């Protein structure tokens, strides 16, 4: 069922995390803004994710800082005191989001369909999006825009970047430079490819005239993985891990020719910038969480792994388990994909 916005002036969006998911949500928000440019939109978002999107046009942000523990819920209630929204788009299936939603006053509360409304979400909503059998996360999010009457669901992104950050990225990667950016680390170590494998692809890229830059956040896992890749590589790599803000990284990803990454936020950040992504997948279904505009460029062992683990059937979105699954991705297949993507850019 779709709502008409004749009498709707204010909308609250609840999507706290993670980086990749908020990138998907931006496409939905901007689809809404194209059709309803006067609609007041308030987005309740995580502290880290806000750093990426804080310059977004036409959106007021309220930060939910989960590091405050139980006090985060009381702070959210204070921040929203006196505000009443016509519609809430409850777009996060997590217990903390379910609890946080109790601080939001809204007449219409739209959540996922019952099959996807886990962690008690269905208890705090009064309407739901249309069920989808095999959606990509982005398509699932677009269901919320459709539920309020948006007809053009074509994803596009405009995430503003400060001029200084764009200049920083253009200085690092001048226009026209052939550059492979490797964002090697996911949030969990088991979703990372092996350092020697990344190094082998980097060596091949350099042999093809590409610069190779390692990028990522300051977490110890990311820093150590980048150092291990450098040690495994016979060529000199440019290591920028932990040296960029999120908006600087976004600008760097825009300047890149190709981005190589596992299932991690920067892969989806690169999608928002129109950059080709080679995604590496073993634990999650790339049809659901892959880089949306580069799904043909994914190198995945997910299908073969999940068939073995689930005896031939697994519900859409089922995660494969195992600490060594990423090692099943063959270097030769990634090199072949790199050659295919780089050649297509020249044609």
TrEMBL record:
GO terms for molecular function: ADP-heptose-lipopolysaccharide heptosyltransferase activity. SUPFAM superfamilies: UDP-Glycosyltransferase/glycogen phosphorylase (SSF53756). Its EC number is 2.-.-.-. GO terms for biological process: lipopolysaccharide core region biosynthetic process. Keywords: Glycosyltransferase, Transferase. It comes from the Bacteria. One of its GO terms (cellular component) is cytosol. It is an enzyme of class 2 (transferase). Belongs to the glycosyltransferase 9 family. This is Putative glycosyltransferase HI_0261. It comes from Shewanella benthica.
